[in-house]
Design a protein that fits this description.
Number of strands: 8
Distance between the termini: 30 Å
Strand order of the largest sheet: 1-7-8-6-5-4
Radius of gyration: 25 Å
Number of helices: 28
Structural class: alpha/beta
Oligomer: single chain
Amino acid sequence: AISSLSHSSLFLICGVFIAMRINSAAVTSLAFMASAGAARAFGASVSRVASRRTTLSRRIPLAMVSTTAGAETAESTSSPSSNPMLDQDGLPRFSSIEPSQLPPAVTELLEKLEADFSAMESKLSEDDGTSYDEVLPAVERLQEPLGYVWGVAGHLNGVKNGDELREAYEKNQPGVVQAMTKFSQSRPLYDALKGIESSWEDATGKDVEFEEGQRRRAVSNSLRSMTLGGVGLEGEEKEKFNDMRMRLAELATKFGNHVLDATKAFSLTIEDAADVEGVPASAKAMWAQSHAMHLKSEDPEADVPEPDAEKGPWRVTLDGPSYIAALSHLPNRSQRETVYRASVSRASDLGDEDKNNVPLIYEILSIKKDMSTMLGFDNFAEQSLAGKMAPTVEAVTELTDLVAEKAIPAAKKELAEITDLARSVGGDDYAEDSLEKLQPWDVTFWSERLKEKKFDLTEEELRPYFALPAVLDGMFGLVKRIFNIEVTAADGEAEVWNDDVRFFKVNDVETGKHIASFYLDPYSRPADKRGGAWMDVCLGKSEACNRDVPVAYLTCNGSPPVGDDTPSLMTFREVETLFHEFGHGLQHMLTTASVGDVAGINGVEWDAVELPSQFMENWCYDKPTVYGFAKHYETGEPLPEDMFEKLKEQKTYGAGMMSCRQLYFGQMDMELHSSFDPKKEGEEDESIFDVQRRVAARYIPHSPPLPEDRFLCTFNHIFGGGYAAGYYSYKWAEVMSADAFGAFEDVGLDDEEKVKEVGMRFRDTVLSLGGGVEPMEVFRRFRGREPSPEALLRHNGLA
């Protein structure tokens, strides 16, 4: 779960932030025609893997992760207080919350939690035959108040970051980690859960209803999480394990802060209009506004001229929209090179030593390896896969290689075509005797030019048809059409952390019942908001806590409005990203599971959790859906038919290179957490960057990284988030998501009645069952069979 952009402007990174209960990984993560082997990984015929994570129960978010258990309509479990963080009657009081309120809130709740849990342990130790209702629901209620506070703090740390909040967060993190460690290593709790599981085993063979099945999954997940959390360790070994866990939480937070600080530290000011010749008007307006805002932040009293998109100056930063626009459109090669090199050297040994993540990476890898060894695993990757759908590291590699076999030839062909265009029209700078091969800062630029030439369609031409308000209306129209839910604006009914943030309610159309809500934070704010896009849990569904209305945070870093009268005009990639995050939100919000540990995204294996999000992206190419929002923001005219057809044709443009890059990230992650030894530091031993180059040579041989490339130092997904030895999950789950959309294609996307029927089946399975049912079984219930990779290959143009 991370939120940074990769240095490939073709590839947006998204993550899901999940709070975890009784969960060791919570602390440490905090923060195609398949061969027989791949088929066995899926447990079936022609397929390959699906799914992800350790089905962990989640409650308290540790480190960069944030979430709260609970819901909008719940009664408060904390006494009323002048501290708004302790007012948990409903939604967080964001307009009243200050960083200084976090320490007293955490201190008060930790003291109560410790006393209450000690009493619970004593009771569990004395009682024989404890029932389910006396254990996990009780744990949910105990952890909820602290989870609420820490979830709000974690969320604000990502969207309203500042020195005071950082200090308060880091100061209080050890206490929260220690408290959750007590849960994950409680022998009385473990024995009670084991006894409950054993009593259910006596009923093996009987049909289990969903209500009981989700309880069984919650108990099973908790037992596994406690095992991975060191419940079986004793004495000095346990003490050492817990010290390492504490250190990991600290390192994960520090890693993310370094990335944020290094990203903010760079800017390039352009003053010569010739250097922005041909750059889209929206990009120039964004950079001009960035320059004006920067001057104002430097001197709030200064009389700063109004930003002028045509005359400049223009300020380029490493923030997502700005960086992508620079690599895609700046005609000046040296300026693109400056921006690119700044991006790939962030938070590394090539810059400010105070923000150097290299030693942090080695320490993180070393600690994870040691902890895994103490738990009986050969490496951290084995431990990570213990709760995922993918059975082994070898199965992940096999799947990766199966996709690579199709993707690498396609990528080489794509790059050759891009290179030919650059050499033919780019002038002397790109002549073969001057430039042996295109450099990384050239590829994106010329890829955009080739796309424009091939399809006679530019991103700038599309933007006026993708105004954010209209896109939201269209997206909400889609889910009403296929899932029978209605989304309505409820701005003003909830306090927000920034004026740009919106609030929405979700109602079931058939019953009219209010079933969920969500916040949307759509725009980039480089000064205090982390990059990327993610979904996070604000309040979770839980019968134990009397909370029935889940609430989500949907966070993007899209193009902000430029000027007072123009709405945010989105790139098509930003539209896809919004649909992606909404897919995550739907799984959280439409859950019918009532056990907090497996409601919504909780308890879903890590390599399956991307299914709903990637599934939603497919609708961005569905004609009724697109024409539900693609209207010119000034005239109201619909997107011309020929432009829509070109948009669909572009879908597979660059698919080979994009697939290879994703495989490269996933396999690099797996290698670092399996075969790499971070403790070998001899001159003949591999460094982390040697591993990066070795994996790159295998999966992106057409586009190797620069020798000074330090992308790993900003790989927040695996070092600051929850994707360690799990990044492969994006491609793993994509098999399932493509096949799921294939069910709609099979009945005909123009058959509204059939589409609605399949949509309701998707809602009643994938979006409803959450972690209460094993993901392969969920897929079978929806599709009637196990996943096949055919749809993925077809959608990516690799069949």
